[in-house]
Model the fold of this input.
Amino acid sequence: MSSAEATNPAPPGRRRGRPRIDLRRIGRAALLGPTARDRLPDAIGHVAEAHRAHHPDADLAVLRRAYVLAESSHRGQFRKSGEPYITHPLAVTLILAELGAETTTLTASLLHDTVEDTEVTLDQVREEFGEEVCYLVDGVTKLEKVDYGAAAEPETFRKMLVATGNDVRVMSIKLADRLHNMRTLGVMRPEKQARIARVTRDVLIPLAERLGVQALKTELEDLVFAILHPAEYENTRALIAANPTAQDALAAIADGVRSVLRDAGITAEVLIRPRHFVSVHRIRLKRGELRGTDFGRLLVLVGEDADCYGVLGELHTCFTPVISEFKDFIAAPKFNLYQSLHTAVAAPDGAVAEVLIRTHQMHKVAEAGVVALGNPYAAPPEGAEPAEDGERADPTRPGWLSRLLDWQQSAPDPDTFWTSLRADLAQDGEITVFRCDGGTLALPAGATCVDAAYEQYGEEAHGCIGARVNGRLVPLGTVLDDGDTVQLLLAEDSGSGPSPDWLEHARTPAARIAISRWLSAHPEGVKVPASVPRPPSAAVSTGRRRAADAVVAALPEAEVRLAGCCTPVPPDSVTGFEVRGGNVTVHRAQCPAVRRMEALGRAPVAVRWGETSACRVTLVAESFGRPRLLADLTEAIATAGAAVVSATVEPPSEQRVRHTYTLRLGDAAELPALMRAMRDVPGVYDVTRAQRPAQRPAAP
Done:
């Protein structure tokens, strides 16, 4: 079936006992004439009822005035379905009222299309309803195609997101607006249905998820599913219809849960939550054949946070828990305000039921997200302490929104913005990493050290030369985990820039846009900072051409490399062996590799040190673990005049830590003093030259 309206399942989260409202009838009634001034028009009586259910003391007079203006301005306009246009703002307002939106949001919702589609102006809205309502209406007003052409849609979303950064209620109205449009999309041409559904899937549904408005998100997912995947949708619908008694198994487990909690003295409401269509489809893909308990979940609602854990303990005691399904989103809430305990228990017959445990307030927030916050911009109650920075605290400005608002400023091209927005919203989840100065960075899951650098330093991150994660030097492409501690190392040379391969590691639009802009502005290439460590292959470059390395007496044209297994330095006794390609590798005379090569009959090549005494050496420091050990060792090395080329810190083993440093010294004679200085660092019990196993000698 091509009509989304015809195939739409009942919206999840709708209150039991309240019949679905006939908006067509309401729209026709709205055109019958004026009503008495002392009561609300009948057409918005349902809105008033839903609003008063959440806000018993709400002043409905402003809603009456907003409705009168909306109805009179839209009079004579009709939707493509033939309905009076006023049915649309009424439906959008009713959606928000049922979610618990406050009066200002509902007022703006009634007026959200007046400036765009009628003669009403923003000045008129501001004069009659105030600055806040005017801001919300302006935030959801589309930009004209006649002015922006093909860029109208992305630029409208940019405008809307910027407005959301100042007042999240803008996006609440947009989500409800898109939900009602999706409910009635069946009158559109199939190709237009598909285009709108794709934008809904790529942009609006992720935004609903990030704002925590699950009631809107789940219904939008089902509507998009019906349009973009009609065959799978129909199969899922048929599967649900063919199992009308599927929830009997859940009902039996629910009765058992009620009995257990009643005996434990825990007051709780136990409900069966049917899965929406997309959820059933995903479960079927994951598990194959479905059992009755797979068509829904149990929801346990209690009064206090502590009761949630009490319920969990009783369930895990009286039923067989499925430990792998346990998740605690109360102690560690999701980034979109969601809090709940998730678990699964098995009944005596082996049926497994998923269980959600939360308080009534948590449930309200889980369904309505930021809408449940009321007006987050209202002045604090008398006596409340102001925020430390003197500004009002805004719980609706999470890290993902702040990042989005930052990077969109660097994307003046609508196509870049539109592509980056979809990519950003496709990132699932968020992590928090700690900076070495005690601050935190909020990043999308899968972010790397490159993303952290641009999040912390902006364009100064162009000069990033390395990173330490949890005290260990790591490549910039390292993926970060939630809770990691990150120290980013910047070059002193402000003219340095990123490498093109950073684009492969960047996950956030801010990093990708900044790197791409720098590379476009510097087509001549990257200027490598002097303090950037050379790649390992360059670390053993030719001694013949560099006075710091060995020279060959017998083979003056050969390229000389210092062996990585023993890293010889002047004045070590050294010997060389010819390897594939005519090159010569130089080892310390006592290196085990020398004995292996001699046993294979390989003839040594006479080598000697050049005139310079500069050298490169790898040292291994064995120590007991303690705070600031890495910092103290690094300081000792710097004080001794050595330059750190690279360093690694192995994970602690039995309270012992191994640090491996590759260092550059101006004079090899300074090496003994350097090693003594490192041994003097508290906690370090030995410092030795590296003796790594050499690879099997290659045939000459």
